[in-house]
Amino acid sequence: MKYNPATDIPDLSGKVIFVTGGTAGIGKEAVLALAKHNPGRIYFSGRNAARADEIIAEIRSESPSTDLVFVECDQSSLASVEQAAKKIVSGSDRLDIVIASAGIMNVPPAVTRDGYEIHFAVNHIAHALFIKLFLPTLLHTAELPNADVRIVSVTSQAFAMHPTGGILLDDLRTTQGFGLVKFTRYGQSKLANLLYAAEFARRYPQITAVSIHPGVVRTELLASLSFFTRTMAFLTHPFSMLTPAEGAYNQLWAATGDKSKIVNGEFYEPVAVPGGHARRSRDQKLAAHLWEWTDKELEDYRI
């Protein structure tokens, strides 16, 4: 599908949007594209306040009336996520679109200050906490006239690199550095993104929740890889490597495109193409187990 955000994103009047990782890469590009279509307000998160100021200045030079709010957040800290979510909820009584774009890839073995394997913590648990704390507002918005509430979770085809068994839930309070290689830890977190979106759609069908693969994109995530891994990415995708702006297309389509063409809970490859699945990515039992595990881990966090 050919996609042009300038013409394919509809008017967003009145809609309140939140984008995680909005200060860099495809998250930043999503913010820039959405801001051109008259949203009610865009919240975006990240760790770099100076970069956020630059983005706000860039947008306001073209659209002075655009309502932009930067929310500083370190997704390796659940306390930081909780603080950011509460700031957003206290600032708006509606939330129409959540784009879970922030993520890390193939970093060295580590656990977060909360004690979780770092890929899983940043890529899955932090976003799950945002969604949990947003849920009352999302459900309220879904009851409004002409409501169209959506959650877009950025996953990756790399979910297929998950460990045997899918997600090692009993081992996530370790670095998993001895049992899994970095690609497998990353793949496990991306499988969680896909399964959690599908399970959310089953539990809350009044909200559209999908996961998307952005494509292979020239972003800071790719730059952080080893020389060999970067070279392999370029060699295997010589004509399909995307710019960050192009890498945002699939999430923009999922967040704002024709709802009648979106299957709730589905996984999409760029742009708007139902994605290829493996056995574990269709595993509803694993998705339910992941939901229950996550819910228990986050039970002490509430608005």
UniProtKB/TrEMBL annotation:
Family, similarity comment: Belongs to the short-chain dehydrogenases/reductases (SDR) family.
Origin species: Mycena maculata
InterPro entries linked: NAD(P)-bd_dom_sf (IPR036291), SDR_fam (IPR002347)
Pfam families in the record: adh_short
Lineage: Eukaryota, Fungi, Dikarya, Basidiomycota, Agaricomycotina
Source domain of life: Eukaryota
Name of the protein described by the UniProt record: Oxidoreductase
Sections of the chain in a coiled coil: none
Keyword line: Oxidoreductase
Gene3D superfamilies per the UniProt record, alphabetical: NAD(P)-binding Rossmann-like Domain
GO MF terms, alphabetically ordered: oxidoreductase activity
